[in-house]
Amino acid sequence: MIETVSVTRYVTPLREGGSLPGIVEADDLGTYVCKFRGAGQGVRVLVAEVIVGELARRIGLRTPRLVALDLDPEIARYEADEEVQDLLRASPGLNLGVDFLPGSFGFDGELPTGPDVAGRVLWLDAFTANVDRSWRNPNLLLWNGDLWVIDHGAALYFHHAWGGGVTDPAKFAAQPWDPGDHVFSQHLDLLASVDAQLRPLLDGSVFAEILADVPDAWLEPVPGSASPDELRSAYVAFLSARLGARQWLPQVVSG
Prior knowledge:
The strands form two sheets. The protein has a five-stranded mixed beta barrel. It has a three-stranded antiparallel sheet with strand order 6-7-8, with no helix packed on it.
């Protein structure tokens, strides 16, 4: 499982996003962006963050280190903002911490390391069906001269339909991905070569290793998959089915 540290101080909210993440300090002396289990999107967003973040690392992209933040809701007593108090009280136990990158700034359109990284970001978002990497919200940071990918909670949409039980992996495998609004849509011509490079890096055993990073507390039971390990197997099945298909990969039509 990802490392667990304890929150020692809530510093400030980040009001750019609808889920109200916050900057916190932890007992490992680290500073993190905390994404709360009590936010409206629920814990499946945290699961997606871990899975897609680790997939990014496996295919050579930079993404901040993730930890599980153990939060004592008593910390809410020291916050004046009622909205923050409510969120802290609704989020006891394990929340997601994203390593804070001091001095980083948002992507401004200039790629620091050439177009190959853009192709990898496109492939990652296509594979995970991420719909949140547009110019309105690139979810990319520049830090120490490198591009970093962040905020993957909008990916892996299929698990939001698991309220009635795990659905069919084949449907996700065949679901096309629309790149029209993507911040790197001008680099779609790279996808075929990038796809050939990246597919061999992933398989069912890699997916199982990645799912082992997800805390049991975030793998809430659904009908037919009552245990965390059964949920992990379901995620592995969906990712493996997607990897075994090609319908989701956008095709570049030459004029």
